[in-house]
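Repro:
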Amino acid sequence: MSFTRSIRKPGEQGLTLVELIVTVVLLGILASAAIPVARFQVKRQKERELRYDLWQMRDAIDKYKDAADKGAIRTKVESQNYPPDLQTLVDGVDIQGKKVRFLRKIPIDPMTGNTDWGLRSMQDDPDSDSWGGQSVFDVHSKSQGTALDGTKYRDW
């Protein structure tokens, strides 16, 4: 009778402890490399949503101004034909007996999670954080965060 033992007997299947440890370590390294990539993907997607929402609202503001410049919408003189607020773009205005809406809804800012956007009027200082309330010339995020390209979201 032999007291020596072979590592694997013929017909036995499975992994040795060393093989298991190497596999777990490699999986750990791969997982730790994938987590930052996934975080950047989430942030990049939110940035795309923010750009789209800003484009959508600015386009609605421009369409409102174009209609007001053509005389289809009556506006206050000090507004310079810009809408008084974002809700007006959603509620719509009467143009030749028809209700015309420029936005379906006020989008949710993906960076702050609410519909409270920073507004600017023509009378406001470009660097001002407060809105004068005369009209809506431009819209921006109120987020204090920094984008992947190093710019501030509120400056977009």
